[in-house]
TrEMBL record, chains A, B:
Protein family (similarity comment): Belongs to the PurS family.
EC number: 6.3.5.3
Classification lineage: Bacteria, Pseudomonadati, Pseudomonadota, Alphaproteobacteria, Hyphomicrobiales
Keyword annotations: ATP-binding, Cytoplasm, Ligase, Nucleotide-binding, Purine biosynthesis
Identification of the protein by name: Phosphoribosylformylglycinamidine synthase subunit PurS
Function: Part of the phosphoribosylformylglycinamidine synthase complex involved in the purines biosynthetic pathway. Catalyzes the ATP-dependent conversion of formylglycinamide ribonucleotide (FGAR) and glutamine to yield formylglycinamidine ribonucleotide (FGAM) and glutamate. The FGAM synthase complex is composed of three subunits. PurQ produces an ammonia molecule by converting glutamine to glutamate. PurL transfers the ammonia molecule to FGAR to form FGAM in an ATP-dependent manner.
Enzyme class: ligase
Chain segments annotated as coiled-coil in the UniProt record: none
Length: 79, 79
């Protein structure tokens, strides 16, 4: 079983990395980009075929390590 | 117009960051995780409402800055 976890900054949290990318794109001459926010994505392979067990593992992984829930949101998609 | 760009390592490219996360999850006692690969996600707001122009800008952004196409794949989703 495979899953994709997407971790993004919450609204209102400053994103200097995104701002830097925005500036870099402007200096590279890429037009039409209004704003950029960067997040992380984790492609996870699970050892179990049981969906609810997989979801529990992924939730634990997100809460404990992958996302800082004070400033970040996470979304889990099982594929 | 908004877009999400997902950049992931190509198959076969070593991912020490993913390996480290895998190890950390094991030591934290999270079971059932077989492997982890990390990628990046960019949430981009575009200044244009024209779809083909947006796609051209995003392609240029990916090729020039967001992805290293030698070792990474990227996927653009307009939302």
């Amino acid at each position: 079983m495979k899953a994709r976890v997407t971790v993004t900054l919450k609204n209102g949290v400053l994103d200097p990395q995104g701002k830097a990318i925005e500036g870099a794109l402007k200096s590279l001459g890429v037009d039409g980009i209004a704003s950029v926010r960067q997040g992380k994505v984790f492609d996870i392979e699970l050892g179990t075929a049981d969906k609810s067990q997989a979801e529990a593992s992924l939730k634990a992984a997100c809460e404990k390590l992958l996302a800082n829930t004070v400033i970040e949101n996470y979304r889990v998609e099982l594929t």
